[in-house]
Fold:
Amino acid sequence: MQRLSNYNHASGKQEPVSRSPAFPVPVLVSSSGDIPPLPEKKHKKNPAKNPRTGNTNARRRRINRKAEALYPENERNAHTVRNRRKKGMAEWLITGAIAATALAIAASLLIYFHPFTLSDAAQAAKHIAATVHGYASGKIDDLREYLHTMAKNKVPAQDFSTEVPLSPASGETGNPDVISSLNRTTDLGQASAFRTEPVFVPQEDSIFMFMLDTSLGSMLYYSQGDVRWKDYLYGGQDPISRYGCGPVCVAMIINSFSPTGVSPIEMADWAAANGCYARHGGSYHCLIPDSLSAFGLQVESVTDRSVEHVSELLNSGHILVALMGRGSLTQNGHFIIIAQLCANGNVYIADPANFENCTKEWELQLLMDELKDAYDSGGPLWAVSIPEP
Structure:
């Protein structure tokens, strides 16, 4: 029989007797003597809902949100790339069809409100081609001018014996009695020696003004290399020394054979204001008939460019404005004046870019063969005369 109590003889008290449990129970005691509560049982969570372990999609979305907050531009670019990758062939076809329809509607409206003929389209194409060609030629000319300047710094300047400076006291239009006549020779000009590059005289203050004999009478010569306007920007962009052969040619003719006295600067401004200036390409061909007729001169297109017919025009009180093309005479389009017929059938010319070419005779057939292949505005050859009163 088990005892339920035990008597303490020392204290004279009855002490309770502890009963042993049916199984041992471990008890953890802290350093303070307190018994801590039992830890809660940890249940294993579902890995599919655990953002740190199993739920990969939720974790990726959380990372993308952080990246978008830090790098919004990158997120937009990535979103655009993803959208582009998702575009299929059908979407591209639909987009192309919409664009083609819009272009067709725009072209229809343009034709309806602004009808044009095939000749207008050809003229526009020529203007575009001339602009593109002029831009490319301008770049080539700039490089050529740079190389020419480099070579000129190394080679001593040539002495031009025919250059006669004009005193500033004589005025711009000048008096024929005090302006020297250009000394011409009977030397025959060779195509290989023909130069259309502007001639810059050794003296910085030199002025080119000569009187030339022509079929219409004495004509005052102007040069693109004249110090007074060689650096003037034709159309506000291109220097006359490189692109101003057209305004200089018409300035010579208008100043000499019309009641109005003009300079190359004034004619360059007139050309730019009247739609005759071609950026980086010089002048449109319409400059010749439009400007000369505007100042009271008679201009007609020369369609028969045979030597016999051109000689007859020169003998009957005409001078000719010729548009020279790419060939043995020039690498680009260039305006010159065919001024006078010689007794031997050759001609004298007025070249605004190179006064040396004005001192020699030239074969008329050679000039006719080297005309530019352009037929708009009456080109490439025009006959100019003084209208009868």
User: Anything to note?
Assistant: The chain has two domains: 52-94, 125-385. Residues 118-154 form the longest helix (37 residues).
